[in-house]
Design brief:
Pfam families: adh_short_C2 (PF13561). The chain has about 475 residues and is α/β, with parallel strands linked by helices. It has helices at about 1-10, 10-20, 55-60, 75-85, 120-125, 155-175, 195-200, 245-255, 270-280, 290-300, 325-350, 365-370, 375-395, 415, 420-425, 440-450; strands at about 40-45, 65-70, 90-95, 105-110, 135-145, 180-185, 210-215, 235-240, 260-265, 280-285, 305-310, 355-360, 400-405, 460-465. It folds into 2 domains: about 40-215, 3-Layer(aba) Sandwich (Rossmann fold), CATH 3.40.50; about 235-465, Rossmann fold.
Length: about 475
Amino acid sequence: MSNFIESILDSGVGRSLMKSVLPKAIELKRYNPGQATYFEGRVLIGAGTRAALLPALLRNLKDANAQVFYPAAAATAGLIVKAAEAAGVKATGLEIHPDMADKFDALVFDASGFAEATDLNQLYTFFNPVLRKLTGNGRVLVLGRPHLKAASGEQAAAMRALEGFSRSVAKEIGKKSATAQAIYVEEGAEANLDAAFRFVISAKSCYVDGQVIIVRKADTVAYPDWHQPLAGKVALVTGASRGIGEAIARTLARDGAKVLGLDIPPAEADLKRVMAEIGGEVLLGDISAADAPQQISDQLKAMGGGDIIVHNAGITRDKTLANMPEHWWQMTIDINLAAEERINHALFEQGTLNKGGRIICVSSMNGIAGQTGQTNYAASKAGVIGYVQYMADELLAKGITINAVAPGFIETAMTDAIPVVTREIGRRLNSLSQGGKPVDVAETIAFFANPAATGVTGNIVRVCGQSLVGA
C-alpha cells in the first residue's frame, strides 16, 4: 500500500499537492564511469594571506578536466598565478562582482595561512560575490590547518572558525544539491592531500555534506587510476549480503578489489548471489563467535592477505533502557563493537593485514547524537568512534589507516517500510532535502580504502546530507 501511495505522490497531481509542503529536491549527480576524470567543470580559486596549499591544490587540478579561474583583483592573485604556472595549469583572472554572468562548478579557498581572527574577513571577500554563482551539484571547499596544532590561540581560533563557516555554507547551498566541506592538512602533509581533495570535489561525495576531513603526514602513494583505484587489493566486507553491506561489496569490486563477503548462515543465498555477481568469495559465520577471528584470518591469508577490512555487520535491538532485556544489551555491544575489536586484534597479531592496510568501520549518526530506545546501539556505535580515534596514532606508525563512516537517512528496505509521509519528511531533514543511497556510504568507504589516502586516518565522516540531527 505504501508503494501505491508513493506512486500517487510522485505523479503530476501528487507532486503539485505536496510541492508547497515537501518540495522535490534536485537529484544528486553520482559517479559516472563514463566521465574521464574525477572532476569536469569551472573552478574559482581563492587564497588567503600566506596560503601554503595552492601548489598541492593546483597539482591535483592538473589531472582534472578543469577550467581554473581566480579573482584578478585579489591581493593574493600573484600567489595563485605563481602556483598555477609551477603546476603547469592555465589559470584565468576574472573581475569578480555580484552581477557577473560567470557560473562555477566549484569554489575552493586556501585559508591555510590564516593566523588571527581578522584573517577571516578574507572568506567574506571571496565568497560573498560568487556564492550565488555556484551551479547545482556544485562544490565548496575550504582548506586549512588542524587547529589543535596551531602556533597560537589566535591561529587555533581562526582555523576552527573554518569548520563553522563551511558547515553554515553547506546549509545555505543545500537547496542546489551543492555541498561544502573543510579539509585540514597538517604541516608537511601537503603531498597527502590528493585522495581527500579528489573525493570531496567529485560526484562520489554527493551525499557527504558539511563534513571535516583531517589529512596527516604519512608516506605518499601516487594517486591510482580513478576508475580502478583498488586493483589488486583484497577486501573483507562483513554483513555483505544486502543493503549497505551489499553496496560496499559491489563498489569495492567495481573499483578493482577482490571481495571476501561475510554474513550469517541465514543470509547464505543472498550472499552467494552477490559474491557470484562481483567475482567475490563467500565466508559464512557469526562475527561474534569465538572462532570468527581465526576463520577470517585464515581465509584472508589464503587470498594473499587482507588490504581492506570493512566492519559493516551490526544489529539493532531497540527498546527504552528501563524496558530492555539484558541479553539485548549484551548482544548489541558484542556484535557491533567487541567483535570488531577481537577481529582486528587477531589480524594484527597474525600479520594478516598487508602493508598499507585500511580498516573502515561503520558507525552511525545515533552514535554521535543518541536516540530514544537505542542506548545499546548508540553506545556501541559511539564506542566504534572512540576506538577509531584512539587507534589512529598507533596504526599510522605501522602504515595502516583506520576511519569510520556514520550514515544518516539511507534508502534501504528498512526505510521503505516506514509510513510514506514519515519517510518523505525524514528524507528532508538534511541540507540536501533527500535521502541517500547505500552506494553513497560505499563511495566514502572506497575513499578511505584508496591507496593514496595514506594520511587520512582517525576521521569520522557522516554520510547524511548534513542531517539536522547531531553534530
